[in-house]
Write a structure and sequence with these properties.
This protein is an alpha/beta fold and about 550 residues long. The chain has 17 helices and 26 strands. It binds 1,6-di-O-phosphono-alpha-D-glucopyranose (G16). 1,6-di-O-phosphono-alpha-D-glucopyranose (G16) binds near residues 18, 486, 488 and 496.
C-alpha cells in the first residue's frame, strides 16, 4: 500500500476550543480543511503506531465523507487498528466507553454537538485521549498551533470502506473493525443500573417520551428503552439519525425541545419526558408539568447516588462548572463530601474523576456524568433518573420538591446573547473586568454587589492554571451573576449570563422571581450599551 505525502497550506482560523474544532460545515468543505485538522492532531501525538484509533460520528451531514478520509489518513499515519461504528455512528459517551474497554490510544469524534447540522449548519471534530476524556486544554492548544503551520498530510489511495455492515477487514497492515455502535454501551448501562427494577416500573404502566432529536441517540434509546426495558413502542420519538437532524436544533432545553416541553405540560403528559443532543452527551428531564433544571438534576443524582449499587461506597465527591447554580453544594455539604467548581468544559472534570476526587459532575448546559466514562452522558443520566423513580416510586416533581424542602431552592436561568459582532462581547467583558473594584458596594433597585472577581482556576490534581474563565458577581439576597463568552459558537460571539438566587420560598415561578435579577444584570453589565439591538436572545 502506497503512502503519499500531500502538500497542504494552513488555514489560520483552526482553533480548538471548549470541545474541539467547531465550524460551519462549509468551512470544513474547503480543500484540506478537515485533513489539516486531522493531520495536526496526529502530528501532536506520539507512540500511536500500531495502536487502536476509534472513529465515531453523530451522523450529521459531511460525516460520511469525513469518516472515510480519516480512515485513510489513520492508515497512512500507521495506526494498527481502527474501530468504527456501523454507518460511522457512535455517540460521544459510547466512544469514551469504547476507548477504555478496547484500550484504544484515542478517538476522533465528528460532531458539533448540540449545534444544527446540514449544509448550512455546523460540523466539528474532537479528539479524546486514552482515558476516554476529551483532550486537555494544553493538547488542544498544541493542535491549534500545529494547524497554523501544517504543510503536509499523510494519505493513502484506496476505495472507501463499506460501513453498512459489521465486519473486519485489513487495509495495508491496519485492521479495520466495523462494529455495532449500541451493544457495548447498552451492556455497560446494564452493569450500572438496576434494569430489572426499571423494567418493573414500565411493566406497571409507567409512561415516558424520549426525544432523540433525529440525532445519534435514537438507535441507543430504541434498543435500551423499548427492547431491553420494555417501554412501549413509540416511547422514542425522532429516533433515526438524519444528516440534517430533520431540521431540528438538537439542544435539549426549554427553547429547542419546545414540543417535548409542551407535551410534558399537556393533559396527556407521560410520567417522564426526556431528550438528548446531537452526539448524546446532554440530556433534559421533565416530569408531568414539571421542568427539572440541570443544577437540581445534578443535586438529585448526588442525593441518590449511593442507592445505585454500582456507586455504593464510591461517592468520593462531586463537581459542577462555575456557571452552574449551586444546588449540588448543599447536598455535598450534608453528605460531608467535597464539591469542586471548575471552568466550563468537560475536560476540567477529567483529572478530578481520574484521581477519584469526584464521582459525579455536571453543568448548567444540560450535561452530567460520573467516573463510568470520562464524558458527559445523556442516556446514562436518564437511566439514573429512571432508576431513582423505580426505587422510590415517586414522581420527578416529588423528588425535586423534597430536595428543595431539605436544602432550599436555587432558582436559575441562563441568557445567551448572540451577536455577529465578536468584538462587542470582548469589549463588554474587558470593560466589566476593569470595573471590578468599583462594582463592590454598588446598589441597584433590588440588589447590592457584595463581591466581584475574575474566575481563575488551578486544577487540584495537576496544579495547572487556567485564567480568565468568566466573572463572578455575588449580590445580596443570595443572588449571583456569572458571565462569560460561549466557547461553542461556530460564528459571531455569544455572551452567556447565568443568574441564580437561593431562596427558602420554594413555590415561586422562576421567571417572576428572577426578573429583578435579570434587570440588575442588564444594568450592571451594560448589555444594551455594548451589544446594541442586533442580538438574538435565548433564555434557558
Ligand atoms: C461543550 C462542553 C461542555 C460545556 C459546553 C459549553 O458542550 O463539552 O462541557 O459546558 O460546551 O458551551 P458554551 O461554551 O456554548 O457555553 P458540547 O455538548 O457542545 O460538547
Amino acid at each position: 500500500m502506497n503512502i503519499f505525502a500531500v502538500p497542504t497550506k494552513p488555514y489560520l482560523d483552526q482553533k480548538f476550543g471548549t470541545s474541539g474544532l467547531r465550524k460551519k460545515t462549509a468551512d470544513f468543505q474547503q480543500e484540506n480543511y478537515l485533513e489539516n485538522a486531522v493531520q495536526s492532531i496526529f502530528d501532536c501525538l506520539t507512540g500511536f503506531e500500531g495502536k487502536t484509533l476509534i472513529i465515531g460520528s453523530d451522523g450529521r451531514y459531511y460525516s460520511a465523507h469525513a469518516v472515510q478520509v480519516i480512515i485513510k489518513m489513520a492508515i497512512a499515519n500507521q495506526f494498527g487498528h481502527i474501530i468504527i461504528g456501523q454507518e460511522g455512528i457512535l455517540s460521544t459517551p459510547a466512544v469514551s466507553h469504547l476507548i477504555q474497554k478496547r484500550q484504544a490510544f484515542g478517538a476522533l469524534i465528528l460532531t458539533a454537538s448540540h449545534n444544527p447540522a446540514g449544509k448550512e449548519g455546523d460540523f466539528g471534530i474532537k479528539y479524546n485521549i486514552s482515558t476516554g476524556a476529551p483532550a486537555p486544554a494544553n493538547l488542544g492548544d498544541a493542535f491549534s498551533d500545529r494547524c497554523s503551520k501544517i504543510d503536509r498530510l499523510w494519505m493513502i489511495q484506496s476505495p472507501d470502506v463499506d460501513l453498512s455492515y459489521q465486519h473486519e477487514e485489513t487495509l495495508g497492515s491496519t485492521l479495520i473493525e466495523v462494529i455495532d455502535p449500541v451493544s457495548d454501551y447498552a451492556q455497560y448501562m446494564q452493569e450500572i443500573f438496576d434494569f430489572e427494577a426499571i423494567k418493573t416500573l414500565f411493566k406497571n404502566g409507567f409512561k415516558m417520551t424520549f426525544n432523540a432529536m433525529n440525532a445519534v441517540t435514537g438507535p441507543y434509546a430504541k434498543y435500551i428503552f423499548e427492547e431491553l426495558l420494555g417501554a412501549e413502542s413509540g416511547t422514542v420519538i425522532n429516533g433515526t439519525p438524519l444528516p440534517d437532524f430533520g431540521g431540528l436544533h438538537p439542544e435539549p432545553n426549554l427553547v429547542y425541545a419546545k414540543d417535548l416541553v409542551d407535551l410534558a405540560y399537556s393533559e396527556n403528559a407521560p410520567d417522564l419526558c426526556a431528550a438528548s443532543d446531537g452526539d448524546g452527551d446532554r440530556y433534559m428531564i421533565l416530569g408531568k408539568s414539571f421542568f427539572v433544571t440541570p443544577a437540581d438534576s445534578l443535586a438529585v443524582l448526588a442525593e441518590y447516588i449511593e442507592k445505585i449499587p454500582f456507586y455504593k461506597g464510591k461517592f468520593y465527591g462531586a463537581a459542577r462548572s462555575m456557571p452552574t447554580a449551586d444546588a449540588l453544594d448543599a447536598v455535598c455539604h450534608k453528605l460531608k463530601k467535597e464539591c469542586y467548581q471548575t471552568p466550563t468544559g468537560w475536560k476540567f472534570f477529567g483529572s478530578l474523576l481520574e484521581d477519584k476526587k469526584i464521582s459525579l459532575c455536571g453543568e448548567e448546559s444540560f450535561g452530567a456524568g460520573s467516573f463510568h466514562v470520562m464524558e458527559k452522558d445523556g442516556l446514562w443520566a436518564i437511566l439514573f433518573w429512571l432508576n431513582i423513580l423505580a426505587i422510590t416510586q415517586k414522581t420527578p416533581q416529588k423528588i425535586v420538591t423534597e430536595l428543595w424542602k431539605k436544602y432550599g431552592r436555587v432558582y436559575a436561568k441562563t441568557y445567551s446573547y448572540h451577536t455577529n459582532d465578536t468584538e462587542a462581547v470582548t469589549h463588554l467583558l474587558d470593560s466589566l473586568s476593569s470595573r471590578i473594584p468599583g462594582l463592590i458596594d454598588l446598589s441597584f433597585d433590588d440588589y447590592s454587589v457584595l463581591k466581584a472577581s475574575i474566575f481563575n482556576y488551578t486544577d487540584p490534581v495537576s496544579n495547572e492554571q487556567t485564567t480568565n474563565q468568566g466573572i463572578i458577581i455575588d449580590l445580596s439576597k443570595g443572588a449571583r451573576i456569572f458571565v462569560r463568552a460561549s466557547g461553542t459558537s461556530s460564528s459571531g460571539a455569544t455572551l452567556k449570563v447565568y443568574l441564580s438566587q437561593k431562596s427558602t420560598d420554594i413555590q415561586s415561578d422562576p421567571k417572576d422571581l428572577l426578573q429583578p435579577l435579570e434587570k440588575t444584570a442588564q444594568d450592571l453589565l451594560q448589555i444594551q450599551k455594548y451589544l446594541g439591538d442586533k442580538v438574538e436572545i435565548t433564555e434557558t
